[in-house]
């Protein structure tokens, strides 16, 4: 069962990455070209395997390009939060005293608010668009890394080999980079893989609510938002972008579970 | 115990104050809320008058002091759109959100917890595999997509349930199912692993060895001990229910706090945004406090300090 889940996760993730990278070649036509003569065609129409939307744009092309955008946002956010949150957690755990106290207070404030609502509020205030949605998600999401990494550092620091290296006179920076960081790295990777899908889904939810990425950019969330007006006549506009999102989340989740089981089975998230 | 609750409440107050300050700072630093709210063709004179009336012309520290002073009295100003007390507007929407969240919690407890226990006790049976598939799928399915699909099937095709709004029990069905879906998947999964962990303990072996029936071994010894991680996670996630409510309420036009917050953000109605932030963070931290107290009650070994 676990092998099956891991392979399914790897398979789905690879499929989404291929779809995203090869979108311009896989897609039958441009995702932004409108064709009013062929609007709201159902799936299976010649030339439009998944049908067309209200402006006659090809749905398959839009879903494939949506994969590009979703993965781009996911990768950027995970990198930013991983590096920023990881570094802050590392410093807070290593230097304890006031950096630790300040960081934990900020974490408390952020955690006193549901993640999606926080990211949405930040996004509404700093402004919409691709760059700002990445910044908002990062600003809301770095705390998880900081917390996990700080906890790990606090426990790794007590281990004998670190104490021994410190007693031998190793400098603090070297100690941090050579002995602590490599032991904390697996947790960072696991958290990143588990956060990845929640970032993608949060981006889609925020774009769905009218913030974030704006039409006509083919983002799954804003496509779903537009589809609401046509639910009575064109189910495919809601079904396919959402299915793509769910399958992506499923693949990345399964991959993350597998990574956790192999790298860091104790970690609870 | 009393000292613990008091210190936690003081901490809550500090956290709420800091989060309000953060939102205030972001709102004021990001531009002029008046201009964003005004129609395009308005005269400069009117803008200035409006700004003067709302106090946006004063220096920032004065505005901040006035904001803090008002906030401690529960006065966040008047909604720019509805011309009504912002906090009153927010509190009015709270019962609808609580109704939705409570129904989802009830659904979760009635479905996910028994499912998790059964799949741990009957490990590696067909039931266990089926429930694993269901939870993995449930965790990956975004609520807003599930909501749209349910509307399509039950409102558009079958015409059994209303697409949105409120009033009857039928209106509550889809929103609470959508809100419960994600939550249930996590709880079922956690329940399963918590029960499995306890089943491996030696006191369970002892209980079985002294001849206790399976019902008592599971019902009494296992459940009470696996309740701790379940309650902890359920509490942490109960706060996320508020986040989930934002999306669910918007899809189903449910007149709750989440939908009001989204509309206030879209309209740049900042007094309402601030009041909503206040109410949400207070509720959220109080839920967490309640969970910690429950935790101490379930496991007397935990000393609350």
Question: Structural class from helices and strands of chain A?
Answer: mainly alpha
Number of strands of chain B: 0
Unreliable segments of 5+ consecutive residues of chain A: none
State mean pLDDT of chain A (0 to 100 scale). 86
Report mean pLDDT of chain B, rounded to a whole number: 84
**Poorly predicted residue ranges of chain B:** none
Percent in strands of chain A? under 5%
Radius of gyration of chain B: 24 Å
Total of DSSP H or I helical runs spanning 4+ residues of chain B: 12
What class would the helix/strand composition of chain B place it in?
mainly alpha
The fraction of residues in strands of chain B falls at: under 5%
Query: How many strand segments of chain A?
Result: 0
Query: Biggest protein-protein interface?
Result: A-B, 43 and 47 residues
Shape estimate of chain B? flat
How many alpha or pi helices of chain A? Answer: 10
Share of helical residues of chain A: over 70%
Largest sheet of chain A: none
Order of helices and strands of chain A: HHHHHHHHHH
Largest sheet of chain B: none
Radius of gyration of chain A: 22 Å
Description:
The complex is a heterodimer of chains A (269) and B (305). With 269 residues, chain A is mainly α. Helices cover 73% and strands 0% of the residues of chain A. In chain A, helix 1 packs across helix 3 (59-95), helix 3 runs parallel beside helix 6 and helix 7 (160-167) crosses helix 8. The longest helix of chain A has 37 residues, at 59-95. Chain A is elongated, with a radius of gyration of 22 Å. The two termini of chain A are 21 Å apart. The mean pLDDT of chain A is 86. Chain B is an all-alpha fold. Helix content of chain B is 79%, strand content 0%. Chain B contains twelve helices and no strands. The longest helix of chain B has 38 residues, at 214-251.
């Amino acid at each position: 069962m676990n092998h099956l889940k891991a392979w399914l996760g790897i398979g789905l993730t690879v499929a989404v990455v291929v779809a995203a990278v090869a979108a311009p070649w896989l897609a039958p036509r441009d995702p932004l070209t409108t064709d009013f003569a062929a609007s709201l065609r159902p799936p299976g129409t010649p030339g439009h395997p998944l049908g067309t939307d209200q402006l006659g744009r090809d749905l398959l092309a839009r879903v494939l390009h949506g994969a590009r955008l979703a993965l781009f946002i996911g990768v950027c956010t995970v990198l930013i939060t991983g590096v920023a949150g990881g570094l802050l957690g590392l410093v807070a755990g290593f230097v304890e005293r006031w950096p630790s106290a300040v960081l934990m207070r900020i974490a408390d404030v952020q955690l006193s608010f549901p993640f999606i609502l926080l990211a949405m509020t930040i996004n509404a205030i700093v402004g919409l668009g691709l760059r700002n949605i990445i910044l908002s998600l990062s600003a809301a999401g770095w705390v998880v890394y900081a917390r996990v990494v700080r906890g790990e550092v606090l426990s790794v620091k007590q281990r004998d080999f670190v104490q021994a290296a410190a007693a031998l006179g190793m400098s603090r920076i070297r100690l941090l980079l050579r002995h602590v960081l490599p032991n904390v790295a697996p947790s960072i990777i696991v958290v990143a893989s588990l956060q990845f899908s929640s970032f993608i889904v949060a981006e889609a939810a925020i774009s769905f609510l009218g913030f974030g990425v704006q039409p006509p950019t083919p983002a799954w969330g804003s496509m779903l938002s537009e589809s609401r007006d046509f639910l009575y006549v064109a189910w495919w506009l809601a079904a396919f972008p959402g299915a793509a999102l769910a399958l992506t989340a499923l693949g990345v989740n399964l991959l993350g579970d597998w990574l956790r089981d192999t790298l860091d089975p104790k970690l609870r998230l | 115990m009393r000292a613990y609750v008091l210190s936690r409440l003081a901490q809550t107050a500090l956290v709420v104050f800091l989060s309000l300050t953060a939102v205030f700072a972001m709102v004021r630093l990001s531009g002029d809320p008046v201009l964003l709210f005004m129609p395009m063709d308005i005269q400069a004179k009117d803008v200035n008058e409006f700004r003067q009336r709302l106090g946006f012309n004063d220096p920032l520290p004065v505005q901040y002091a006035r904001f803090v002073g008002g906030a401690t009295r529960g006065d966040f100003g008047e909604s720019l759109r509805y011309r009504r007390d912002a906090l009153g507007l927010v509190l009015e929407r709270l019962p609808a959100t609580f109704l939705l969240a409570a129904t989802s919690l009830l659904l979760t407890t009635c479905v996910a917890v028994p499912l998790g226990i059964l799949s741990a006790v009957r490990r590696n049976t067909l039931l266990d595999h089926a429930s694993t598939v269901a939870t993995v799928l449930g965790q990956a399915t975004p609520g807003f997509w599930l909501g749209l699909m349910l509307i399509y099937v039950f409102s558009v095709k079958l015409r059994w349930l209303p697409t949105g709004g409120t009033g009857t029990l039928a209106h509550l069905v889809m929103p609470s199912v959508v809100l419960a879906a994600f939550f249930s998947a996590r709880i079922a999964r956690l329940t399963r692993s918590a029960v499995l962990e306890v089943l491996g303990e030696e006191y369970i072996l002892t209980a079985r060895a002294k001849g206790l029936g399976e019902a008592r071994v599971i019902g009494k010894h296992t459940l009470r001990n696996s309740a701790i991680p379940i309650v902890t996670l359920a509490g942490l996630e109960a706060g996320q229910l508020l986040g989930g409510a934002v999306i669910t309420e918007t899809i189903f036009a449910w007149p709750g706090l989440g939908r009001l917050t989204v509309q206030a953000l879209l309209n740049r109605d900042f007094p309402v945004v601030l009041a909503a932030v206040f109410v949400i963070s207070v509720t959220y931290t109080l839920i967490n406090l309640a969970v910690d107290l429950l935790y101490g009650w379930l496991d007397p070994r935990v000393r609350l300090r």
